[in-house]
Amino acid sequence: LQGVGGTDPAADLPTPGADFGAPGADSVQDDNTGPEPATARPTHAGYGKIILLGEHSVVYGRHAIAAPIGLSIRAQIAPQEHGIELVVAGVEADPAVDLSQRVAALVVRRLGVADSGMRIEVFPELPRANGLGASAALAVAVIRAVADRFQLSIDDQEVSALAFECERIVHGTPSGVDNTVATFGRTVLFRKRDGLATPETSEIVTAHPIPVVIGLTGVRSLTAQTVGLVRSAWQRHPQRYESIFDQIDELVLAGVQALRDGDIAQLGDLMNINQGMLAALQVSSPELESLVGIARRAGALGAKLTGGGGGGAMIAIAEPDGMAPITAALQQAGYSTYLTEIR
pLDDT tens digits for 15-41? Predict the structure, then answer.
């Protein structure tokens, strides 16, 4: 399997991270019918995600709330005579491409088409290593594209399960949140069940859309690294960390009701408390704390890191008429932003 950088052959497809910094960009609904490349081959997508509440504790069997965002990764298959080639548009060879090669190799093996020639073309909108689920979105997009190309019957549950296998390559001990949202594209309450392949998931429907601004620290963060740091600390002091995980779980369950009620103030309060607990787990960073502070001073009702931490991204919420000052403050401080909503 050969991985190479490249340029997007279709000018009308999104370029990586294009929506960041565009205050008017939103949409959490993605119907997978975006512009097709000039070759008219179909594209297949995996959704990006944010974790609203419950990072890290979800790895230890507690609940988390996760929601899709309007950024995705798309893939398409072009036939070729021999070999399997992976091309990630706009990305030169780097460790992320190497991991993508391994993911693609696992997918074609599991789907039984490793002996077929194909060129897998990937078009990322999601920035890598920012806690927004890029690796899971890539896996889901590649699985769907390969299955379609070879007319394989695979349902969404099977797509998610295979994407979870791919996540093990990237993250070591993933929770299963990212592949679930990348596959189904819905806001969910999620809990991993020990010894069982299928997690507990239930869809959350909000009383009305809740606007969210995502801010990028500019510091790439590897979820596997922060998950490993928390695991080491948990192994040294299990009772101490289990207590923190239990408290986070209580926040998550309260957050479900706040979402259903459309109570943005309550949800924001829960996010702020959750951020304090994530800082106690030592997965925040100076850059994340700076973003959180800017957002709160600009009127955010809630602001916290999202994803693994250590850098990456922050999310903030407010009433709809309070979002513009937050976005402006983050951009004036030099941070890239993206507006989306939970619904």
Answer: 223 333 332 333 333 333 333 333 344
Catalytic residue among 8, 19, 26, 178: 178
At 53, list the tokens: 């509440």
**Tokens at residue 143, please?**
């699985």
H, E, C per residue of the chain: CEEEEECCCCCCCCCCCCCCCECCCCCCCCCCCCCCCCCCCCCEEEEEEEEEECCCHHHHCCEEEEEEEEEEEEEEEEECCCCEEEEEECCCCCHHHHHHHHHHHHHHHHCCCCCCCEEEEEEECCCCCCCCCHHHHHHHHHHHHHHHHCCCCCCHHHHHHHHHHHHHHHHCCCCCHHHHHHHHCCCEEEECCCCCCCCEEEECCCCCCEEEEEEECCCCCCHHHHHHHHHHHHHHCHHHHHHHHHHHHHHHHHHHHHHHHCCHHHHHHHHHHHHHHHHHCCCCCHHHHHHHHHHHHCCCCEEEEECCCCCCEEEEECCHHHHHHHHHHHHHCCCEEEEEEEC
Q: Is the pTM of this model over 0.85?
A: no
- Structure tokens that stand for 218 in this block: 């500019």
For the segment 35-72, what is each residue's pLDDT rounded down to a tens digit? 333 334 457 999 999 999 999 999 999 999 999 998 99
Residue 178 is a catalytic residue: yes
- Residue 99 banded pLDDT, cuts 50, 70, 90: confident
